[in-house]
Structures are given as C-alpha cells and as structure tokens.
C-alpha cells in the first residue's frame, strides 16, 4: 500500500510550522529592539531623540513643532512612558517656549 497521499499534507504542515516560527522570531526581534521592555529612558536620551526629530522631521520650524504639539503627534519616550516635546523641554530647560527649546537643539530658529 502506497502512502504518498499523506506525505503532501504532512510536508505542508511542517513548512507551515517552520514559517510561523520564523515569523514569530522576526516579530520578537523587531519588538525587542523597538520597545526596550521596561527600560527607563534618561532625560539626555529623550532630549537627544527630540532634537533629532526637531531638525529632521520639523526642519527647525517653530510653526511645524507647534502644529505637531497641537495635534498630539510630537511625543518623546522618557522614563517609562512618553511625553510631549514641550514637557521634555520644561524638564530640561525650565521653559516651554518652543523657540528656546529648538534653539537649544542647535537650530537657527525659523518661523
């Protein structure tokens, strides 16, 4: 009696199981690098990340940063959560004046 009829479904199940394991490994690797589980982000790291975004994403523009803050889209990882850029600036510099914050990032302030 030939068993060729059952070999295809078993081979397919093995391939499917390997594909799922590889997919889970890739997802786990991605999230371990993106979400640093429980790690607290220091103020200097948060400020550095914020300044990079100020220069690259918002082009050192006060208006662009203010628009992002109004929309709630300029959040920075700090401590064990996220905070808006102006709060990070308040903690670091003692002011929420966006022009001052941007200037401290090394930008020539543009409107």
3D structure, described in words:
This protein is mainly α. It has 2 domains: 1-35; 43-104, no CATH class. The chain has helices spanning 4-34, 43-56, 62-71, 85-93, 98-104; strands at residues 75-78, 81-84. It has a two-stranded antiparallel sheet. A hairpin with a 2-residue loop joins strand 1 and strand 2. Helix 2 (43-56) packs across helix 4. The protein is rod-shaped and about 80 Å long. The model has no long low-confidence stretch (mean pLDDT 84).
In short:
The protein has 111 residues and is mainly alpha-helical.
In terms of topology, how is this protein built?
Blueprint: H1 4-34, H2 43-56, H3 62-71, E1 75-78, E2 81-84, H4 85-93, H5 98-104
Antiparallel strand pairs: 1-2
Helix pairs in contact: 2-4
**Spans where pLDDT lies below 50 across 5 or more residues:** none
- Give a short account of the largest sheet: 2 strands, antiparallel
Radius of gyration: 24 Å
Calculate the mean pLDDT score and round it.
84
Identify the quaternary structure here. single chain
Number of distinct helices = 5
How many angstroms does the end-to-end distance come to?
82 Å
Which geometry do the CA atoms define?
Answer: rod-shaped
Key phrases:
111 residues, mainly alpha
